[in-house]
Amino acid sequence: MNGPLAPYAGRLADGIAALGLTLPQAIVDKLLAYGELLLKWNRVYNLTAIRNPQEVVTHHLLDSLAVLPLVGNLRTLADIGSGGGLPGIPLSIVRDGLVVNSVETVNKKATFQQQAKIELQLGHFTVINKRVEQVQPDSLSGGAAEGVISRAFSSLADFARLSGHLVAEGGALYAMKGVHPADELAALPAGWIVAEVHPLTVPGLDAERHLLVLRRQPG
Ligand SMILES: C[S@@+](CC[C@H](N)C(=O)[O-])C[C@H]1O[C@@H](n2cnc3c(N)ncnc32)[C@H](O)[C@@H]1O
């Protein structure tokens, strides 16, 4: 490959190793190809504020992969407010069998994701161009999802309110956050609890990251 991400291929490989992941070279190449597509389409479609190739590797690719140890064993995932396909597309690339439904309301962003699905041959990745509150669980590929994830989508309370209906029984909401959002916890809607808080380290990213797991209150 000789596109704008080529100089950062080593950084991606080092980051993947630092996350404790071992990925075939073909998968690493696919991650780079996705990053290049994002940069290319961003010039016209304004998909993400990040335009620096190095930051595509750290802030988008590695940041998305950092949650893999916590969601990588799920069978079905819905990514809400996925923008240019984050974290859903990187997760779909590295976990071929994972069924990912990617929900994004803005047409041009969903169109980009559909194009990425075709170019990267993501067989289990489905784009849903709708507002999440209008999506019914049975319209998701695989039905209600074991994991419903979002990054930079909304407050925890709105995430639970708007997306909670898409979580399968026994499943969870996964909120990717920067600093631990202590002030958002008190505003959670009734019926949801924060079951787990995982601090995450993203290689090459000098910023706090947390994954919060929300489950339905028992009883
Ligand atoms: C800040 S962006 C984050 C995009 C991506 N998750 C990321 O981390 O780069 C939030 C996205 O949520 C989408 N969005 C906002 N409200 C939505 C809703 N009700 N249903 C689906 N998507 C929504 C926006 O169009 C936008 O693309």
UniProtKB/TrEMBL annotation:
It is found in: Cytoplasm. GO terms for molecular function: rRNA (guanine-N7-)-methyltransferase activity. GO terms for cellular component: cytosol. InterPro entries: rRNA_ssu_MeTfrase_G (IPR003682), SAM-dependent_MTases_sf (IPR029063). It holds the Pfam family GidB. It catalyses: guanosine(527) in 16S rRNA + S-adenosyl-L-methionine = N(7)-methylguanosine(527) in 16S rRNA + S-adenosyl-L-homocysteine. It comes from the Bacteria. Keywords: Cytoplasm, Methyltransferase, rRNA processing, S-adenosyl-L-methionine, Transferase. S-adenosyl-L-methionine binds at G81, L86, V132, E133, R151. Its EC number is 2.1.1.170. Belongs to the methyltransferase superfamily. RNA methyltransferase RsmG family. Specifically methylates the N7 position of guanine in position 527 of 16S rRNA. This is Ribosomal RNA small subunit methyltransferase G. It comes from Parazoarcus communis SWub3 = DSM 12120. The gene is rsmG.
